[in-house]
Specification:
By secondary structure, the chain is of the alpha/beta class. Among the domains are: about 200 residues, Nucleotidyltransferase, domain 5 (2-Layer Sandwich), CATH 3.30.420; about 90 residues, 2-Layer Sandwich (Alpha-Beta Plaits), CATH 3.30.70.330; about 80 residues, 2-Layer Sandwich (Alpha-Beta Plaits). Helices cover about 35% and strands about 15% of the residues. The protein is built from 27 helices and 28 strands. The strands form nine sheets. Strands 5, 6, 7, 8, 9 and 11 form a six-stranded mixed sheet that branches. A four-stranded parallel sheet has the order 12-15-2-28, with helices on both faces. Strands 17-18-16-21 form a four-stranded antiparallel sheet. Strand 17 and strand 18 form a beta hairpin. The longest helix is centred in the last third of the chain and has 35 residues.
Length: about 725
């Protein structure tokens, strides 16, 4: 977590803008961890990266911040779930910068060097002392008991442990006899499907030390199946229809089959035991046995080929064969025990893997790109590996990125629309495949009919006009010759005023006040309507236009936005008060986490308002009651719930301080065309929000999900 001042700046608009290099830092570290020199992002922090189940990037092409706020009410799910939002600096080469193929000006943030074959990544065969296997086990041969996981290792790697809270109803194998170097080995592997409960077993295989299959049984899950994972498990709905065997039946059979001193062997066996809901005290995990640096693991398919010379998990077969996988894991453990760590280290598995993956990436580059993506033509002469990008790095670490969408890169690296794949079809494929992938990029698109420049200009003008109306209030009527200074002072207590004008076209004078922040305008409506100001009992209201008919609904939704949870707005401060003064005044408020005193982004001067963020929502509500009417150094305070988060606050300021091009009559002619397609656009946005909702619900826990609005450029 960053320091309080850094956090407050990000929350309230001064530091809410990030560049593509910073986004790249986040995705790179989330996906790779400390592998390949990936480091924590410079602008935020990910805790327990190794616990991330996956990374999902959803790209909403042709959409920008303009669309998010124009259709704020339609993005019902998006704004209620995603609480961290940042402005993204424009990029002429968006997709290329995301994938790491350029667009990252800082060398340390690019993908260059991530797939390096230097000695830093690959240990030399002549220097076995640096090999992680030798560092872990030494060079001498040892018996099998030296390679079983200790209790601490089992806890660290999420193995079910007897007596632990999460394993209360798990079945214990009761294999309690002491292990010796002659204890029997058994290979175990399961195939799982995704259900409402999580991962549930659909097939179990057990093999003995001679490779004989003792158990190969289909199992019917208890809960509703969401995804059979047929591509990996080979299991289909049809296969499970006649099956009567349930998990308790398998648990009973395994307990009977295993001798009291049995040692179970498997590849990432913790997942199998968790799915079986069984506890076994003595295991050898081949994904940990063949140790790598920085917690990385070799895949079973690679180890079987590199160590045993066997091809398993053939792509020609439908799904994995658990008996084959159990047998491969068992033989790998037997090889390790018989040959010893030194012989295994001499295989130089790291170099074999990197060489194999780079060759695969080189040959299949086109297949790894988004649909239609083409590689740049290589120079004449000796062939060279293409410049590694983010996706290449994932390939080298054994992860297969999932790329779905309607965008492709042309030869210059710019994206082009490919409307042949509808969003609905992309969603369907994403729902099936995203839970199986550790890194996914899902691209949805509005379509070319919604990106015409005059339509965007019209949308921009509508949003600008509505924001201006929401920041504006009319107050009156006042008596002739009323004191304008006292009116400005009273309305100024609600927040910073951008301009105040007197309306004289009416029978009696009115004033028009345009504020700089939404909270100030809303506070004026709530606190000054019906109040006596400058000798007159006045009415305070916003402009009444067609666009403002849903203003109350919009204000309510902004107030309930997750970004504004626990945040309140305080106005009426003297400009002479410093942040230190306010910290001292508000220190008695319970659970106060951050105080932010906004500045004028042009002059750098403090405004007469501040924002307070509390650790708990209830504490924020309690603070509202205390602060309203509170006097700080002679200044009476007013407060309410916050409405505008950092990026919106900054965006409003930019819109207020930019002249913008007015299109005159031609713009208003185009407004009619805009109205015709705006209804269709609103429907499309609703559909996209629903797509994101469906996809989000399918994600595993601990998934980092990033939604991007890249705009049309």
């Amino acid at each position: 977590q960053e320091k309080s001042s850094r956090l407050s700046a990000a929350l309230f608009g001064e530091d809410c803008e990030i560049g593509h290099d910073q986004l790249y830092e986040l995705l790179k570290y989330a996906a790779l961890g400390k592998c390949h020199n990936a480091t924590q992002p410079s602008w935020c922090r990910i805790y327990h990266q190794s616990h991330l189940a996956g990374v999902v990037v959803i790209v909403l092409h042709e959409m920008s911040q303009l669309h998010f706020y124009k259709f704020y009410l339609q993005f019902k799910h998006l704004r209620k779930v995603f609480r961290h939002r940042f402005m993204l600096t424009p990029s002429a080469n968006f997709l290329a910068s995301l994938y790491g193929e350029g667009g990252n000006p800082k060398p340390q943030n690019t993908a260059q060097g991530l797939t390096s074959t230097s000695g830093e990544c690959i240990p030399k065969s002549s220097d076995l002392q640096c090999d992680p296997i030798i560092r872990k086990y030494g060079e001498k041969k040892q018996g099998l008991t030296s390679y079983t996981l200790t209790l601490e290792e089992q806890k660290k790697n999420d193995y079910p442990i007897k007596g632990s809270p999460g394993c209360k109803d798990y079945v214990y194998t009761e294999c309690d006899q002491p292990r010796t170097d002659s204890s029997p080995l058994f290979g175990l592997d399961c195939e799982m499907c995704l259900t409402a409960k999580g991962n549930e077993v659909t097939r179990v295989s057990l093999v003995d030390a001679q490779g004989q299959c003792l158990l190969n049984e289909l199992v019917k899950p208890e809960s509703t199946v969401w995804n059979y994972r047929t591509r990996f498990s080979g299991i289909t709905k049809k296969m499970l229809l006649p099956v009567k065997t349930r998990l308790p039946d398998i648990q009973t059979r395994l307990k009977k089959m295993l001798p009291r001193d049995a040692v179970l062997v498997g590849h990432s066996l913790n997942g199998d035991l968790q799915a079986l809901e069984m506890i076994h005290p003595s295991v050898i995990d081949t994904s940990l046995l063949f140790a790598r640096n920085e917690g990385r693991r070799f895949k079973l398919k690679f180890l079987a080929k590199a160590v045993l010379g066997k091809e398993i998990q053939s792509e020609q077969k439908l799904g994995h064969d658990p008996a084959e996988d159990a047998r491969a894991a068992l033989e790998l453990a037997q090889f390790f025990i018989e040959q010893g760590p030194a012989k295994v280290a001499e295989l130089n598995l790291e170099m074999l893997l990197t060489t194999e993956k780079l060759a695969e990436v080189s040959q299949n580059k086109a297949a790894l790109q988004p649909q239609g993506c083409s590689m740049q033509k290589q120079l004449n002469g000796p062939s060279h590996l293409p410049k590694p990008c983010f996706l290449d790095c994932l390939q080298v670490t054994g992860q297969k990125p999932l790329l779905l969408g309607r965008q492709k890169l042309d030869s210059s690296g710019h994206h082009q629309s490919n409307t042949s794949t509808p969003n609905k079809q992309i969603l369907q494929r994403a729902l099936e495949n995203v839970p199986l992938s550790t890194f996914s990029i899902i691209q949805f698109s509005l379509g070319p009919e919604y990106v015409a420049s005059h339509l965007l200009a019209g949308l921009s003008e509508k949003v600008r006009s509505k924001l201006t109306d929401m920041l504006t209030i009319y107050a009156g009527p006042f008596e002739e010759g009323f004191c304008l200074k006292s009116v400005k002072k009273e309305f100024g207590r609600c927040g910073p005023i951008q301009c105040l004008t007197v309306i004289t076209e009416t029978n009696q004078p009115y004033v028009c006040v345009q504020y700089e922040v939404l909270e100030a305008a809303q506070l004026a409506v709530e606190s000054l309507n019906g109040v006596e100001v400058a000798g007159s009992c006045i009415k305070v209201q916003r402009p009444v236009t067609a666009a403002m008919l849903d203003c109350d609904v919009l204000i309510k939704e902004l107030e309930l936005d997750v970004e504004n949870e626990g945040v309140i707005y305080v106005a009426g401060l003297k400009k002479s008060l410093t942040e230190t003064d306010l910290q001292e005044e508000f220190s008695q408020l319970k659970d106060l986490e951050t105080l932010f005193l906004p500045k004028d982004l042009q002059t750098g001067k403090h405004r007469n308002c501040c924002f307070l963020k509390f650790q708990k929502s209830q504490s924020a509500l309690d603070a509202l009651e205390v602060i309203n009417g509170w006097t700080v150094k002679g200044s009476k305070l007013r407060s309410r719930n916050a409405l505008a988060s950092g990026h919106l606050w900054r965006w409003i300021w930019q819109m207020n301080h930019s002249n913008g091009e007015q299109g005159g009559n031609s713009l208003y002619e185009k407004m009619e065309q805009l109205s015709d397609c705006e209804q269709d656009l609103r429907k499309e946005v609703k559909k996209l929000d629903h797509h994101i909702k469906k996809l989000y619900r399918r994600l595993q826990n601990n998934t980092l999900c990033v939604v991007l609005f890249p705009g049309v450029n």
